[in-house]
């Protein structure tokens, strides 16, 4: 079924083509009519399956259909995301879909770590606001934004947004929103039973859950090596060189570890940068931009970058250390094998983590061949 079946505005259809999207993905095919109909929705579909456009397209179309423009500092659409990088990425998608519309629909990303003044100024006339919760509240307290006219609320990475880490801020934000609104929740790891969902919406939402593909045709191939902690550094370098990896995202469990791994790679002639919450926003933005463009060979990251970030045809992800939660594993390996691409996710596992690994794989309903690295020459 082509996008033209949805009765979308011709300029939006043109922008969809310009993005190179030929056919809707499964989540888009099902979510677009539900969002257009103004219903509440839980959209559950795997990483890289095009969830962003599944809400961005119908939201923009609805805005074009209603002649009423946002005035002053009263956005009509609020999209909440867990990280600054994801906020910036989503606004890129909204902007790409809003080219040459009959009238301008302004979207803006606001997030912390950069000065607030330019954001205060830029908020005037914004219709679609994409925000991280902390900075949104700062802006609201400074009267730079008024959330009382929000018609549609989107929680991208919804399970993360309803997690304990954001709870206090989210509750404060909910109080500022009108009760009557459309609520759209998306994630690859969202459960219909999640308690927080009742706090977001009054009635029952439409639930769209796209089934995972079977193992044989999985787009994200999993491989694992048993490696002791002491041998992980040399083993990582061996992997990168042996497989001639030109673009690889390496996950560690802490920012300090990420710095150390990146430094060590650099000393051995493999260009690497680290990205994590203790870095300045400037350094974060530069590292991710260089990595996305293919200029940087290795990006060593914490789970900061595990949610939502879209890197075109990224071929490799390496778990230098296993994450604690199976969900994080899903999101980390989901940075590869996106859209129609294939990817390989390699995990370095110590013998002591064997049980933990089993738990993760069982949750994912996946199997992974493990290779012992002990005898390998590095
Ligand atoms: P998700 O949020 O489900 O993880 P994204 O929305 O980030 O996935 O989309 C993943 C990638 O797929 C992006 O690069 C996006 O441009 C691309 N994409 C989205 N929809 C389509 C489509 N209909 N056809 C081709 N590529 C698409
Ligand atoms: Mg996404």
The CATH superfamily title of the largest domain = P-loop containing nucleotide triphosphate hydrolases
Using the alpha-carbon principal axes, give the shape.
Answer: globular
At CATH level 2, the architecture of the largest domain is 3-Layer(aba) Sandwich
Give the radius of gyration: 21 Å
Which ranges are low-confidence, i.e. pLDDT below 50, for 5 or more consecutive residues? none
Oligomer: single chain
Give a verbal description of the structure.
- This protein has 14 helices and 14 strands.
- With 378 residues, it is an alpha/beta fold.
- Strand 12, helix 13 and strand 13 form a beta-alpha-beta unit.
- The relative contact order is 0.13.
- The structure holds adenosine-5'-diphosphate and magnesium ion.
- Adenosine-5'-diphosphate binds next to helix 3.
Please describe the structure with a list of short key phrases separated by commas or semicolons:
single chain; 378 residues; alpha/beta; Rossmann fold; 2 domains; 7-stranded parallel β-sheet; 14 helices; binds adenosine-5'-diphosphate; binds magnesium ion
Short description:
With 378 residues, the protein is of the alpha/beta class. The chain has helices at 10-18, 26-36, 51-65, 84-97, 117-122, 133-141, 158-161, 167-176, 197-200, 232-242, 255-267, 281-293, 326-333, 354-364; strands at 41-44, 77-80, 107-110, 128-131, 152-156, 182-187, 206-209, 220-226, 248-251, 272-275, 298-301, 316-319, 343-349, 369-372. Helix 5 (117-122) links the parallel strand 3 (107-110) and strand 4 (128-131).
């Amino acid at each position: 079924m082509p996008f033209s079946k949805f009765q979308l505005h011709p300029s939006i259809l043109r922008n969809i083509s310009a993005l190179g999207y030929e056919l809707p993905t499964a989540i888009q095919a099902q979510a677009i009519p539900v969002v257009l109909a103004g219903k509440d929705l839980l959209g559950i579909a795997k990483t890289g399956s095009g969830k962003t456009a599944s809400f961005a397209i119908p939201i923009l179309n609805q805005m074009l259909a209603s002649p009423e423009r946002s005035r002053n500092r009263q956005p009509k659409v609020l999209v909440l995301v867990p990280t600054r990088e994801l906020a910036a990425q989503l606004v890129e998608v909204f902007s790409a879909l809003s080219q040459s519309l009959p009238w301008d629909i302004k979207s803006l990303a606001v997030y912390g770590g950069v000065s607030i003044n330019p954001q205060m100024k830029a908020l005037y006339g914004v219709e679609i606001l994409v925000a991280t919760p902390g900075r949104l509240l700062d802006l609201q307290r400074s009267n730079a934004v008024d959330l009382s006219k929000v018609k549609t609320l989107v929680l991208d990475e919804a399970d993360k947004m309803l997690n304990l880490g954001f709870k206090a801020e989210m509750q404060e934000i909910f109080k500022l929103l009108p009760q009557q609104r459309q609520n759209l929740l998306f994630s690859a790891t969202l459960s219909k039973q999640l308690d927080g969902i009742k706090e977001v919406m009054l009635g029952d939402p439409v639930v769209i859950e796209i089934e995972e593909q079977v193992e044989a045709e999985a787009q994200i191939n999993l491989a694992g090596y048993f490696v002791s902690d002491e041998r992980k550094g040399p083993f990582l370098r061996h992997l990168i060189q042996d497989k001639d990896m030109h673009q690889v995202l390496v996950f560690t469990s802490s920012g300090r570890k990420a710095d150390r791994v990146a430094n060590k790679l650099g000393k051995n002639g493999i260009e690497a940068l680290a990205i994590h919450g203790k870095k300045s926003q400037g350094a974060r933005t530069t590292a991710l931009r260089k990595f996305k463009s293919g200029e940087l060979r290795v990006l060593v990251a914490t789970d900061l970058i595990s949610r939502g970030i879209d890197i075109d045809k990224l071929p490799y992800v390496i778990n230098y250390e296993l994450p604690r939660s199976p969900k994080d594993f899903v999101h980390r390996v989901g940075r590869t094998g996106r859209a129609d691409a294939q990817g390989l996710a390699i995990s370095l596992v110590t013998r002591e983590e064997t049980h933990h690994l089993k738990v993760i794989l069982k949750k994912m309903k996946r199997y992974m061949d493990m290779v012992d690295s002990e005898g390998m020459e590095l």
